[in-house]
Amino acid sequence: MGTVHHEIDEGVLVLTLDNRGTNSIDLDMAHQLASLIEARAPDVGAILLTGKGDGAFCAGSDLGELKRAHDAGSGPAELLGAENRAFDLIASLDIPTLVAINGVAVGGGVELSACCDIVYASETSSFSLPEIRLGVFPGIGGTVRIPRRIGYSRSMELMLTGRTVKAAEALQIGLAHRVIAPADVLAETLKLARRFAKGPPHAIATLKATMRRGWEMPEREALEDALAAAVALGGSAEVTEGLRAFFAKEEPRFPRRGS
């Protein structure tokens, strides 16, 4: 049985997957992940996900648990449903979400990273979606979120072949946003998360909500929606503080979430 370690670092909720070196997600971990996010997200300004050790970020769903369920005739619904709930929670958060890929990301590990806003990867990391070799496919949001990130054709090729993408290619096609030395990937991701946690919470939440709505709207409607949201923010206390700090040549002191 694996676990999800958690700590709060300067307004950042750091969640670390830990399961026997592979950091694959079993049912208990999926429930832990959802519970921690529900309980702690309202009080922090950013969330960072990573895996314990440097061999794996996350090797996807726990295949041992899936095989036991398959052999018992109960199928994958319970585990995949719990994972989907946790992933949906992450994808729908109104605070920045970051992931430090510190090793292999396989199957559900790639799907989990695609739920996050920012993906930093170590130079020795890799990404793969090999589910088709088991007679299944990336069903925890992978066929939806990954094409929206890297495009339909690239996603289809990766899912049909199951091939492994190394860090440099992951950066090129958009699975990762930055590639960093293995010793530095967690620290650099945490540095960015701390910066986001000090940002204006209402403006960040509005930014994320506006981008999500705009993705589903016709261009003209999305432009009008974004303008209306920006105008509505104009008289906020966050804008007052941002302008004050700019002209005073100081760092702005925005309120922390939960304060």
From TrEMBL:
GO terms for molecular function: catalytic activity. Gene3D superfamilies: 2-enoyl-CoA Hydratase, Chain A, domain 1 (3.90.226.10). One of its GO terms (biological process) is fatty acid beta-oxidation. Transmembrane segments: none annotated. SUPFAM superfamilies: ClpP/crotonase (SSF52096). It holds the Pfam family ECH_1. Signal peptide: none annotated. This is Enoyl-CoA hydratase.
